[in-house]
Amino acid sequence: MESARVVVIGGGNMGAAVLYHLAKEGWTDIVLVEKAELTSGATWHAAGLVSRMTPGHALGTCHDYAVDLYKTIEAETGQGVSWHNCGSLRVGATGDHRDWLLHTRDAVLARGQECHWLSPAEITELNPIYDTSHIIGGIYTPDDGHVDPSGTCQAMAKGARMRGARVMRRNRVTDVQQLPSGEWKVSTEQGDIVCEHVVNAGGYHARQIGAFSGLDLPIVPMQHHYVVTDTVPDFETMGHEIPVTRDDYFTGYLRREQGGALIGLYDTHDALAKWREGCPWDSENELFEPDYDRITPWLERCFERYPSLMNLGIKRIVNGAITYTPDGHPLVGPAPGLKNYWLACGATVGIAWGPGLGRALAQWMVHGTADISMRGFDPRRFGPWVDEEHAYQRCRENYMTRLSLPYPQLQYETCRNIRISGAHERTKALGAVYEDAGGWERPRVYGKDWNGAEPKAWRRGPSWEAAVAEARAVHEGVGLGDFTAFSKFEITGPEAEAYLKRLCANRMPRNTGGTCLTLLLNEQGTIEGEATIARLGENRFWFVTGGPSERRIWDWITLHQRGSEDVTVRNLSDDWGILTIAGPKAREVLATQTSDQLDNAAFGWLKAREITVAGIPLIAMRMSFSGELAWELHAPNTQLGTLWDALWEAGQPHGITPFGSKALEMMRMEKAYRGGHELANDASPVHTDQMRFVKLDKDFVGRDALARRAESGETSVIAYLEVEVTDSDVLGGEAVFYNGTRAGSVSSGGFGPNTGRSLAFAFLRPEAAQPGTTLEISLFGELHRATVLAEPVLDPQNLRLRDAAQS
After folding, report:
1. Which distant-in-sequence residues (6+ apart) come within 8 Å of 428 by Cβ?
2. Using CA atoms, how far apart are residues 282 and 721, in angstroms rounded to an integer?
3. What integer pLDDT is reported at residue 403 of this predicted model?
4. Angle at the Cα of 267 (from 275 to 398), degrees rounded to 5?
5. Sign for the pseudo-dihedral over CA of 603, 605, 608, 613
């Protein structure tokens, strides 16, 4: 029986990238096992596109790294990758297209990369065979290109071998089981390998490989065509290679492939999945028969944009499979519920994603966290409600909308109503438009005339107006919101307090009825999550965290539990719902439905009580992200509708208004509360200015690393900004400039409905984050003045939360 520190299963670009970067991190007792030859799954037939033209910091950083690596790895390893530095174009035909493309440009600039808005005439200079008469312009990233996919995979595998890693080909994995010691036994056709860590980079077979260990991974291979034409005469006389050009009109892309044109096409009407029952183990370098009927409409549209190609012959049609996940992002990180089992699969564009995500996963495995936020890729973002049918429907939808405009309000249409609040029918009757939050249907904004669909816009529009009205109604009177989409864990037992003390950076409440906001840190002192914890008894705690974080935080707290501890942890997320009643009249309304005392003396700010409301025993917590006098009412989900009815009726004399997450997001910006975009694993409490929620005089996970960070300081810190705008607000990811040079990027932002100020959070160089500093933010391609604020724009002394005016 062999042994290794790590076994990587799968020899595509993702597996090779993990192997290569683990070796670069110094872990060399590692082996990659491939059932056939390297690249013989999806990698070999990929179009090889690599672009910096990606919004968002984390995924964009991965794309940037891939470009940089492919430029240099040939010199390092001697393995050719055929890097073509031709650049990329993406064109737009409408104002909404322009806003999205300029938002993408802002994000590329925020990462320190080059990106330009071009006119149709400038696009013609770069791509003379493209008809620009139907577009208004586009963005151009000159430092992009395409590679030979097989070459990139071979180069990373060779680079890993040069550092001591091993590659085993023609050796199928037949089982993966965890031993009583905690090690993993990977069974292969050539024998067993015992290892400390296993990485599933199985590509088409990742779901089947995961099933060996009890995992049900939401991965579906989707069929995708690209066409290669005969020689394009214009290419021979052009003098340069055209940029890879993406156009939503034909839902595809075009680049040069030797003398011809390679045209990638996405079917937006009836995409086909492959191997729903599992990819055959003997599948190798497999392609499928071309489906001419499926691609012809999009090919015809392509020829409208490229009329000189219409009469050329087609040399080759490639119809191969690409792995998809329900949200289009890869599965990279810990497998749910399993220690030292890692995933690097579900990658739709493994050529562009592989190097950066392979590096991030290697950092995570070796150091306990990655340099970029992994929230969007963490496999535990999907809960057990994502079954095989759910995965199939969402993956199809994701494929068919991949080149659609990703409006900020865009929601998936398939597989809805999976997790339903007990108050759902009430909010639906009031015109709620819902968003998917951890599988829950969460009211986002209320609009009775919208037929359940939020109007789409990049700038302020009808849903913005509706959310502003909701927030102002809360501020001036009273609002009722359904915020069931949180995760709720009950932690009990004689050692519950000691257990939580060890996991959490803050102290636990000393007395029954006390609460605390705490951060969960990893060994590097960065943020794994946040939670509100209420002490309901001597040995009973109520632990609340975000709905989309449920599986990830559940893993974190249960896998850190010691077997000898007398602690019981229960996940009650589906069993309990949450209503929030907020506003200066909240006490008046709530008091009509309970005999329990609600005055400050009996029920102060940041306290929790078990009370009865409308005859329903529940947990009431006096807190809210709204910044107003408020109670969160945690009640059995089966009784949430009854609770809503009672409060809604009691609130009628006070003009009670329903409010959703969009209004709450606006209100949290006025209070300068950090949100999920700020509290991620690439930031520490020092970054986010949250050391007040940390007690360094006690021991907890990550304490020593955080103490070092606090002493040395961070290279970037959070800043709270007011932005001078008229018809739009930041969306997140925009570049921030200080004295004309890039200083950082926006993490989140929005409009302050009660102060009329547009606000943002940004991570900046410390010298640019001082209160009063004048900055500029690139928003939809234009620079806007911004000022660093010293305190929240609304109620900085928390008088409204404390209800200080109450006698």
Report:
1. none
2. 57
3. 86
4. 70
5. positive
What is the number of alpha carbons within 13 Å of residue 467 lying toward its C-beta?
Answer: 26
Which helix (DSSP H) or strand (DSSP E) does residue 292 occupy? helix 292-305
What is the identity of the amino acid at 526? T
The pLDDT value given to residue 805: 62
Tokens, residue 614: 């409308």
Q: Which two tokens stand for residue 734?
A: 């925009």
Residues of the chain with pLDDT under 70: 805-807
- One-letter identity of residue 717: V
Pinpoint the alpha helices (H) of 40-148.
57-77, 95-110, 120-126
Residues in the chain: 807
DSSP element (H, E) containing 222? strand 220-229
Q: How far is CA 373 from CA 364, 369, 672, 678, in A?
A: 11, 9, 21, 10
484: left (phi over 0), alpha (psi -120 to 50) or beta: alpha
- pLDDT single digits (tens) 595-638: 999 999 999 999 999 999 999 999 999 999 999 999 999 999 99
How many Å separate Cα 382 from the centre of its chain? 11
- Whole-Å CA distances, 462 to 102, 466, 469: 22, 6, 11
Q: CA torsion sign, 356 to 361 to 366 to 371?
A: positive
Phi, psi of 697 (to 5 degrees): -85, 5
Record the tokens describing residue 260, joined without a space: 């011809």
Tell me whether residue 670 is exposed, middle or buried, using C-beta atoms within 10 angstroms of its C-beta: 0 to 12, 13 to 18, 19 or more.
buried
What pLDDT score does 56 carry? 87
pLDDT digits (tens, 9 = 90+) for 245-263: 999 999 999 999 999 999 9
As a whole number of angstroms, the distance between CA 663 and CA 411 comes to 17
CA 329 to CA 349: how far, in whole Å? Answer: 9
User: What is the C-alpha separation between 20 and 28, in angstroms, rounded?
Assistant: 9
Give exposure, 465-497, as e/b (b: 16+ Cβ within 10 Å).
Answer: ebbbbbbbbbbebbbbbbbbbbbbbbbbbebbb
Rounded Cα distance, 685 and 532, in Å: 16
Q: Token digits for 315?
A: 């040399």
β-pairing, 479-482 vs 657-658, is parallel
Of 145, 148, 115, 146, which Cα lies nearest the Cα of 45? 148
- For 2-367, CATH gives 3.50.50.60
Q: Give the position of tokens 């705490």.
A: 518
Residues 514 and 698: beta-carbon distance below 8 Å: no
- Is the Cα dihedral 18, 21, 26, 32 positive or negative? positive
- How high is the pLDDT of residue 673? 97
Strand order through the sheet with 479-482? 608-613, 616-621, 630-636, 576-582, 479-482, 657-658
Question: How many CA within 13 A on the CB side of residue 405?
Answer: 20
Query: Which contiguous run of DSSP H or E holds residue 782?
Result: strand 782-789
The 3-class secondary structure across 1-23, one letter per residue, is CEEEEEEEECCCHHHHHHHHHHH
* Phi, psi (degrees; rounded to nearest 5) at 582: -140, 150
- Ordered by start, the domain boundaries in the chain are 2-367
**Which one-letter DSSP state was computed for residue 449?**
G
Side-chain-side CA neighbours of residue 172 (13 Å): 12
- CB contact at 8 A, 630 and 579: no
Check residue 807 and give its pLDDT. 37
Please answer whether residues 442 and 434 qualify as being in contact, where contact means their C-beta atoms are separated by less than 8 angstroms: yes
In DSSP terms, 492 is beta-bridged to 540, 568
Beta-bridge partners for 246? 90, 253
